[in-house]
Write a structure and sequence with these properties.
The chain is of the alpha+beta class. The chain contains twelve helices and eight strands. Strands 1-4-5-8 form a four-stranded mixed beta sheet, covered by helices on one side. The protein has a four-stranded antiparallel beta sheet with strand order 2-3-7-6, with no helix packed on it. Bound molecules: flavin-adenine dinucleotide. Flavin-adenine dinucleotide (FAD) is lined by residues 129-133, 138-139, 163-165, 361, 364-365, 367-371, 374.
Length: 383
């Protein structure tokens, strides 16, 4: 267990003040935002809200000032993010860029890329989505077949991505693709990451609907697409190790704990003052789990701040966090004697219905449960 250490992060003296600042901002900027809308949180896309966050200095918080960042700590970012997520704020426009595309460019991108993209991202004016999964390559991204070939003027790309959240609304996609033939001795060799403008000729974006009928996912096809020079992130062929460190950002944050938080708040409101032991036990257990998960997730933020890449700990947080998020829906179903109704019901029944339909994806997006457990087992040396 030596390598599964979660160090206690430093204390932020201004934590209370910062939390209050975010709460006041949310009260002012989202006065009529309903509980139903809040269930979508970092999936809900709102460009104007992202620009307001940008003006407050809450995107790219940890990045250098010369790239439009604010040189605050990862723990301060954690506090702001946690408050925004707990409030169910619509973070979709800036979420992927702030959480992972920006940090990826900061770590591996060229100086030109940093100067071009980071200031726009931190102003809430440029959105990114993730182009990793393919029809036959989800858990095992080494099976990715989308191919980029070096040509004069850049790369020529052919292939197909699926489950690409918000591709129809985003300006750019970070493409994970093959830039060399398969190497039978090293299945992780020959991959690269490219920045792709989604309006480039040859790209087609088609909707894939959620089971509740909403359009959030897409299929993105590349048909002889020319990606201009200068869009390769890092070194050609280093895509796999870059991707692995990107996933530490994707897997560890409060977004992997708080997806059902609007339902938690609704439950607390519905059962306020209840003396029913079934209710008090369920709420006590839920609260205890949340407290522990926050401590673990915060510890990962501290590790990211110190420059390490805590892939193992991030996988633990995501696995436990998404199990918790899904368990809330089950707890709610046990405690409430009501039908979940997406339309025409009470606020609680709509929040419940939305949460039921969104929850199955929590343990799949960003890495499926079984796969995370394999990473954990390998990290612990038991596999
Ligand atoms: C809400 C949501 C949003 C998403 N957004 C994006 C996005 O924006 N961009 C993007 O690129 N992708 C996105 N995805 C796709 C997501 O990353 C993949 O669905 C996920 O990685 C699983 O891949 P798959 O769907 O191909 O399933 P598969 O890999 O086929 O897995 C199917 C099942 O088999 C299990 N399994 C697979 N391999 C193993 C193994 N070796 N050992 C044990 N069990 C195994 C899995 O755990 C899973 O239960 C999103 C998914 C969801 C649900």
């Amino acid at each position: 267990m030596e390598n599964l250490i979660f160090p206690t992060p430093e204390i932020i003296p201004s934590e209370g003040e910062l939390r209050e600042e975010v709460r006041a901002f949310v009260r002012t900027e989202l006065p009529g935002y309903t509980a139903e809308e809040r269930t979508y949180s970092w999936n809900a896309y709102d460009a104007a809200f992202a620009q307001k966050l940008g003006r407050r200095g809450w995107i790219g918080m940890t990045w250098p000032k010369k790239y439009g960042g604010h040189e605050r700590t990862s723990l301060e970012r954690y506090i702001v993010t946690e408050e925004l997520l707990a409030a169910g704020a619509p973070l979709g426009f800036c979420w992927v860029a702030d959480r992972q595309s920006g940090p990826l460019m900061l770590r591996y991108g060229s100086e030109v890329q940093r100067q071009r993209f980071l200031p726009l991202i931190s102003a809430g004016e440029c959105s990114f989505c993730i182009g990793m999964s393919e029809p036959d390559a989800g858990s095992d991204l080494s099976a990715v077949r989308t191919r980029a070939i070096r040509v004069e003027g850049g790369y020529r790309v052919n292939g197909r991505k699926i489950w690409t959240s918000n591709a129809h609304l985003s300006e750019y996609l970070i493409l994970f693709c093959r830039t060399a033939d398969k190497n039978p001795d090293d299945r992780h060799a020959g991959f690269s990451q490219l920045i792709v403008r989604l309006k480039t000729p040859g790209i087609t974006i088609r909707p894939i609907n959620y089971m509740n009928g909403e359009h959030r996912w897409n299929e993105v096809t590349f048909d002889d697409v020319l990606i201009e020079e200068g869009m390769l992130i890092g070194k050609e062929g280093d895509g796999w190790s870059q991707l692995t460190s990107e996933l530490a950002f994707e897997r560890s944050g409060p977004d992997r704990i708080l997806s059902s938080f609007t339902l938690v708040l609704q439950l607390l409101q519905a059962f306020h003052g209840s003396k029913d032991s079934k209710v008090t036990q369920a709420i006590g257990k839920m609260t205890a789990h949340l407290v522990i998960l926050r401590a673990l997730s915060r510890s990962v933020a501290g590790m990211l701040q110190s420059g390490s890449s805590p892939v193992l700990q991030a996988s633990v947080v995501k696995d436990l966090g998404t199990t918790f998020e899904q368990s809330i829906v089950e707890i709610a179903r046990e405690l409430l004697s009501m039908e979940p109704l997406r339309l025409g019901g009470s606020t609680l029944s709509t929040v419940l219905a939305n949460s039921i339909m969104l929850a199955p994806g929590y343990s799949i997006r960003g890495g499926a449960r079984e796969v995370l457990r394999s990473i954990i087992a390998r990290g612990l040396g038991v596999r």
